[in-house]
Amino acid sequence: MKELDTSMPELKLVTPDVDRDAPISVGWLEGEGGKNTLRLMGNADKDIKPTDLEAERRRIKGFLSTKDQIYWAIQYHGKTVGSVWVDLKKTKHLPAPAIHMMIGDPTVRGKGIGSNVADAVITYLAKEGQYDHLYSRHLVYNQAATASLKRTGFIKLDEPYKDEERLEWQNVSLWLKQSSDQKHKEYWDTRKQEVIVEEILKYKSSGSVLDLGTGSGRDAVFLADNGFDVTAVDNDETHLAALKERCRGQKLQIVSVNADLLSYEPDHKFDVIVCDMVLHFFTQQQITNLVAKMQQWTNPSGLNVIAAYSDKNPIGKRPYLFKTDELPKLFDGWKIISYEEKPTPWFQLPGETEPRRNQAVYLIAQKPT
Which of 32, 64, 88, 157 is most buried, most CB within 10 Å of its CB? Predict the structure, then answer.
């Protein structure tokens, strides 16, 4: 197990030592203070049992021997003050990997140890490159844990829930990609909706909308704000959590669905289906199949609205890029309201020195009545 430094020179994550750490653990968990620590971690009173040296030795040995967790002792000024571990296997309430922490020594709480420990583990996992996200959870009433996770960059996943002991929990997640990728994600998530999505208002003033590959919902939010009933689908839980936060802030009602677009099946048809800058991430056959499904899911006189990269795009590498006049041919029998092959608006990604624009295709097609 690799030992980790933190941004605090006096704070380190080290390999647990049974002989060193077991007696310290016993001291943490004795008395009412120990019970409060365990309660804050979600243990019900009926499950809090007295511990002893041998029990703590067995517990630490168990952490060290399992392949389903990574476990560190937290040392502050050379003294073990807590522990942090990452579950590498999905549990009942959380996907993997999931981080958990216990600051056992109450005298060091409130010194920024939790946030700095979490940052060190996040950096380690991001460099490992095996995972896209990191998960955790906290008791809703544990304000210290709530604040610490928020400072570290975790965001809410769905609504709070109660476990078997009627304790109320909030699941959270953090995007683990490297910082440059994170900046790119934030850039795309905060961009304005595509102009072609604004064009929908010329043909529809209300109705039901399905937004496929919504991301954090720039198009979905725009359409909901203009009076449409929107269902937004994405396979990324973190994107959908961000969308839910935006909806709460703007008091909008959007139905969010966590699903793979290639296997998703709605339970009703829609007046408008939007697929904005998504199709070029699929193969040609997958695109053909998905467009056919979009057409089936569309009400008579409904619209399909698509934007995607073309084969004239200078960035080149995508599973599939549309050829000239290829997209309208997938809508045989439909009315092509508008179709353009043109550059995107100018943009400049974080880290780039020059603005650029990509080549794209834009289509609005109407289903026959």
Answer: 157
Q: Tell me: cis bond preceding 97? Omega within 30 of 0 counts.
A: yes
Q: Are 97 and 135 in contact (CB under 8 A)?
A: yes
Token pair of 328 as six digits: 């309208």
In CATH terms, the fold of domain 4-176 is Aminopeptidase (3.40.630)
How many CB atoms are located within 10 Å of the residue 245 CB? 14
- The predicted model scores a pTM of 0.53
Digit-coded pLDDT (tens) for 140-178: 888 888 888 877 778 787 788 998 888 899 998 887 754
* pLDDT digit string, tens, across residues 51-68: 788 988 988 898 888 889
